[in-house]
Amino acid sequence: MADENEHLQKDVKKYVQNWIKSGLIDWDITRDISWGVPVPVDNAKDKVFYGWFDNHLAYISTALKFLNEKGIDGKEFWNSADIYHFIGKDIVYHHFLFLPAMRLGINSEYKLPDYIPTRGHLTLEAKKISKSRNWYIGLKEFLEYYPADYLRYYLVSINPYSQDDLNFDWNDFTTRINSELIGNLGNFVNRALGFTKKAFDGKIPETESFDEKDLGAEQKIKTLATDVGSLMEQNHLDRSLKKIMEFSSFFNQYFQHKEPWKNGSGTTNCVYLSVNAVRSLAIVLFPFLPESAQKIWNQLGLDGNVNEFSWNDISVLDISSGHTLGDVSPLFVKVEKSDIAKYKKQLGPSE
User: Fold this and answer.
1) Residues 104 and 166 in one domain
2) What's the burial of 339, exposed, middle or buried (CB within 10 Å: 0-12/13-18/19+)?
3) Last residue of a domain, one of 98, 119, 140
4) Within 10 Å of residue 15's Cβ, how many Cβ atoms?
């Protein structure tokens, strides 16, 4: 599998191949514990399967159950789809050795994964997370502080396609949310929609002939789906998000250059293209920031849910002159340094 699959990470593939060359050892596939899947053999009473033995088959059985209940042939779907298994580096052995061995053991009835993106561990303030030492942040606790999209944005932005460990740092979190998510993305969405509400009563105006800046902006929208999609297909999620933020930054600069508040030539083009750029952002952001993406969609005055649209819809200028926006309000709330100082004090002691 490792030799033939060009999609696997080279660093992971290399040491898996070294394991094989050095000779594999037998692993017990049962455990003497009170919970788990019982081993269906007479002389294995009170034994259950080791979790990482049956889990690999559960990937398939769970998918089949879900798909079959929706009237989809699960087996056909599985074997014709691109299969991704997202894992941490501590379970490489299980997914690169156990999993293919088991699939081969059932005569390759179900295809092997095409991609096994392998990520590193998460540390907190450069130290190992430990609940016993109170060096951790519970997810429920975090969600009492900030929206889930803040955490999603931060973790994706610091998570490269590698096994390198990543570090949750409260100061870095504050900077990225305030400067990038709010200062760039939130700022553009609010100024584009807010200006349209104020200057045109929320109604998209008729356009004029596009100048060079307009044509450049239009082209940015038309290539966004491909620009971001190609990076996502390569599992570069951090680069994908960065590309989205570059798109937002471009339109912030475009909006600033056109100066629509002066109501000069090209103002209507600026509004039309900026609002369509916001629509593109809503769709492309959904995999990363689902709640924020839907908020943008609602503020655009568009019907339905943003996740109902296809990826290629990102690059379609689908908001026409005459369309009326919904209610517009700021998407995000600033992270206050005083709050962060308080959350830091709640950590520890730590080794």
Assistant:
1) no
2) middle
3) 119
4) 13
Q: Which residues, 6+ apart, have CB-to-CB distance to 250 below 8 Å? A: 217, 220
Domain annotation covers residue 224: yes
Q: Name the band, by pLDDT with cuts 50, 70 and 90, for residue 350.
A: very low
Examine residue 134 and state whether it is found in any structural domain, yes or no. Answer: no
Q: Is the same domain home to 261 and 156? A: yes
Question: For a pLDDT cut of 90, what percent of the chain falls above it?
Answer: 78
Give the total number of structural domains in the chain.
Answer: 2
CATH number at 288 reads 1.10.730.10
Answer yes or no: is 350 within a domain: no
Look up the domain containing 69 and give its range: 10-119
List pLDDT tens digits, range 272-300: 999 999 999 999 999 999 999 999 999 99
Domain match, 100 and 219 both: no
Task: Read off the pLDDT of residues 68-92 as tens digits, 9 standing for 90 and up.
Answer: 999 999 999 999 999 999 999 999 9
Q: Classify 178 as helix, strand or coil.
A: helix
Comparing C-alpha atoms, which of 328, 338, 306 is closest to residue 145? Answer: 338
Is 94 a residue whose pLDDT tops 50? yes
pLDDT tens-digit profile of 97-122?
888 888 888 887 899 999 999 999 99
Mapped onto helix, strand or coil, the DSSP state of residue 151 is helix
Please check whether residue 306 is in contact with residue 294, taking contact to mean a CB–CB distance below 8 angstroms: yes
pTM, to two decimals: 0.90
Q: Distance of CA 235 to CAs 11, 95, 283, Å?
A: 15, 17, 19
Please check whether residues 183 and 284 belong to one and the same domain. Answer: yes
Residues 168, 115: one domain? no
Please, what is the average pLDDT of the chain? Answer: 93
The rounded distance, in Å, linking the Cα atoms of 324 and 280 is: 17
DSSP structure string for 236-297: -HHHHHHHHHHHHHHHHHHHHHH-GGG--TTHHHHHHHHHHHHHHHHHHHTTT-HHHHHHHH
Residue 61 lies in a domain: yes
